[in-house]
Amino acid sequence: MKTSETLITLGMVLAVVLALCSPFSVSAQQPESSQQSGKPDVQPSSIAGPEGVAQNLKAPEARTSIFPKPSWLKSYNGWKKHFKDAYGLSFGLSAYLLYQKANESLSDEDDGFGGIYRFQGSWVVFARDTGHPGRIEWRVENRNEIGSFLSPSQLGGEIGAAALNTGFGYSDNFSTDLAVLNWTQAFNDKRAGFAVGRLAFDVYLDAFMFQTFSRGFFNRVFLVNPTLATTGIGALGAVAKGFLTDNILISGQIYDGNAASGEFDFDTFEEHEWLKAVEIAWTPSVNRYKTDHIQFTYWDKDEREEAGVPKGSGWVVSASWQLTNRLIPFTRFGHSDSGAGVAAESAASIGFEFATRKDQAWSMGAGWAKPSKKPSGPDLDDEYVVETSYKLQIWPFLSLTPDLQLLLNPANNPDESNVWMFGLRAILNL
Q1: Whole-model pTM?
Q2: What pLDDT shows up at residue 81?
Q3: What are phi and psi of 244, to 5 degrees?
Q4: 69: Cβ–Cβ under 8 A, 6 or more apart, which residues?
Q5: What are the tens digits of pLDDT across the range 119-150?
Q6: What residues contact residue 390 under an 8 Å CB cut-off, 6+ apart?
Q7: Range of the domain at 12
């Protein structure tokens, strides 16, 4: 077994055994005493990032907004709360609509319009009010262009972006699919857990507070690091995460390397080609992990023989810190060997989010990427991007986010030194 594979295997074992059994963690048999002593209560969904099902479902009821909450929304939320309290069942509908307009493109196509649509839910099957609940999570999802427009992801390629896609995630080829179906189990007073089944890899891999469609950035460099190997949304896999101490979190992850978004199959068990990762993070305390942490991720992806994609490996560092109640700066850096079909050999980003009021925020960031080396032809030049946006929570169920990007030196469009991209996103959450 090669060194990288050995490290991945050991990491998976350590994440499962140490995180679940560590004497430094609060015991699962003592949830009441931990709460009385002031120790943080970490939800079982803490093993997931902000794109997790539970995170998406939690937020709408608590949002403040510019306009008052309509009366029908109070009744609707009360109806949902009844199901949650009586049966442990939470569910919701959401739609993300993004329109983008570029000042230049490689063709006559200079605008894009697409959507992401979700019906998702979580059912706590047993041990509901304890430190070790177990639940089923699901998400039915569709992503596609709207009307005769290109999808925003396609438009990113049309303007010449190689690694810094300006409308990342808003694709045109994601058929309606059961994208998430897994069992999530918590341990140790919700300080550790695992998820197994059909998973969205970007929910767990290099999980980061800005790695979501719900905050202020649209460019890939601020969402999923372009040096990070990916697989399809809805990959069969397993994730284990847990706090060894109040400050150290470890994780082991494995996914089907051939999963295709919008498709459902079990070829994993025949091909044995995997995306594997280990992570370690430091945070000042468990309850500050979401905003304050430094995280290192090492990944390795097997050769995809039938697809003709070589194996690859790399690493990513992510860090964020809440300086005040309003200001959260962040930085990320990643490097790969250009294998596994990754978009970039190296990439970095820096930025911040400033809350002007609760649930209203200004975001700004700058990013750089060195596109992956190609097997043939000249190497592509480095790309740069500056992005700024402002998220307005109009009602608790509706937000609008105008956005502006400046893409410098688009690698696949050498005739243009810069391209401007205006965007407007609407999020509907019920």
Answers
A1: 0.87
A2: 87
A3: -75, -40
A4: 395, 396
A5: 999 998 987 777 788 899 999 999 999 998 99
A6: 216, 360, 361, 362, 363, 401, 402
A7: 3-429
